[in-house]
Amino acid sequence: MIDRLPVGATIGILGGGQLGRMLSVAASRLGFECAIYEPGSAPPAGQVAARVVTAPYGDEDALRAFAATVDVITYEFENVPTAALDILEETCPIRPNRKALGISQDRLTEKEFLNGLGLQTAPFAAISTADDLTAAVKGIGVPSILKTRRFGYDGKGQVRLGSDADIGRAIEEMAGSDAVLEGFVNFSHEVSVIGARGLNGEIACFDPGENLHDDGILRTTTVPARLSGAQKADAVLLTGKILNALDYVGVLGVELFVTPGGLIVNEIAPRVHNSGHWTQNGCVIDQFEQHIRAITGWPLGDGARHANVKMENLIGADMDRVADLSADPGVALHLYGKAEAKPGRKMGHVNRITPKD
Amino acid sequence: MIDRLPVGATIGILGGGQLGRMLSVAASRLGFECAIYEPGSAPPAGQVAARVVTAPYGDEDALRAFAATVDVITYEFENVPTAALDILEETCPIRPNRKALGISQDRLTEKEFLNGLGLQTAPFAAISTADDLTAAVKGIGVPSILKTRRFGYDGKGQVRLGSDADIGRAIEEMAGSDAVLEGFVNFSHEVSVIGARGLNGEIACFDPGENLHDDGILRTTTVPARLSGAQKADAVLLTGKILNALDYVGVLGVELFVTPGGLIVNEIAPRVHNSGHWTQNGCVIDQFEQHIRAITGWPLGDGARHANVKMENLIGADMDRVADLSADPGVALHLYGKAEAKPGRKMGHVNRITPKD
User: Fold this and answer.
1) Cβ–Cβ under 8 Å, residues B60 and B38
2) CATH classification at residue A33
3) Which of A66, A142, B288, B355 is at 20 to 30 A from B271, Cα to Cα?
């Protein structure tokens, strides 16, 4: 039997950044209240949530109290410490589940899981020592990229290897962390699928978006993506395969490299995803509401796309463009309420709408 | 010179109901924080606002403290007591301005203002006594409707007169309040225009919507409304005339009766309006964001409509339909976070989207 949370229930969100903020707004549309758990002060999500708990993830009392006052717990980022989740889960269900979180927290486990499903990934090898790396570079070749197994995001914790001479520096930069060497993939472009799976197992995917990165940070997502009908079907089917294999509940982001030999999974994110922000102005139900619907046991919403959209992130000094952007017809602004526009910091995004092809 | 409030500024909202709630969400998209002033406890807007002040409108200290911590003040309903506004305005600008508020707070003043602009209204007469009413019924005839000059909403404070025999009861129901007798207008349907005027005087109107009421409460708004091109132009032009005459800043709702003799103004509301909720799923910029843009000195947004929409209010026991509605494709739910679904209470609305004609 499926537990559908009633209107008025409270959703606990771990992390108070922009994703938590937009989840809270979406939850309000369905009549839910949100409580934010966030170690940092003045989190963006707190400006649009019923309640904020400011406490570190190591504060067991705060975690227990939080879990006792919410009906379901979700998270806006995948690096929540395991010990905190253990405590929370004693009291309250966590969705998406621990398996999805565990797999996506570790690049090595994630790649092994994906290969186990028959899905293609970049060639990879586990790296702990300089000798591991020397051997792996022989097999995988250069250019290649060394990434920490855990806690990487937005291009952080990554070193590019152009030749054997980079091996020593690369190992140094990992500073003793376990790592994965990934071979470069010769891809024409990157797309991502924002998929959702409900508590009853139903699956829905938004149209794939095409992503452009700069310096490891997403710059734009454009829908529709350049994909053949067959590629689009592949992208959606493999997303469904991942969702089912994880017995997943919620929204999942799947990044894919498009190659002549088929789609290669770059990485998965067990949460709403930056490349899904276009849904806020391209669909009746956006990825944030879809996630809330899934984790509360509601039916998934209608994610049909009604417009072409180009989403552009506003990063750091891009905030100087807000005055111009606010006067630009067809542009929807989404700012995150962050005080300081530091270089590399995601401050907001815009969705630029044009009629559907 | 126009003061454009910077991202991060705080907007004070008088009233914590659903309109304040949706204003706060819209403000968050532009990077503003909202503070809610509301006498009642646990207001719906408080669930998605940075701060809530719970105090009566007679609490001068609370009003002064509130005004001192916000950058601009707006309101979600037109019956804010004048004395409270006097105190707030010592410290902080109130938008829309006091003139608009004063006129719309009084049905008699409002009708005289509209006639003064050359706009048609229902025939009306000021009523203080039974003698006034007897005389007025002779001139205006029956059926007609007696309404309190002030503090009426959703059909409250109104008595219908079917014959001279109703005069005594009608006066009794007014309980000493000054009133207005309005003649019935023979109209085919009601439409409304949601117009906006910026701090620099620019004007933008959303497409007119067609309204259906039941027992004095709005049930549905449908866009596009049944209007000829000329009627649509008239509706927009007269809205612009009202906005300019009031030196208005913000969103204004104008209810119009469609008759063979032209458009007749039923009433104006100096705020976001229930009949404008369809804009949330029909436009890139909705009425709530448009209001926030106007009162903060930002450029008005692009209100072009990209879909046909039927908005339906969920009133009282309509909440029993939420489970079904949540599974209905093309339906966007907007619930207000109110605890009790009392009869006649607006609990939420749905926007049903179909492709644009």
Assistant:
1) no
2) 3.40.50.20
3) B355
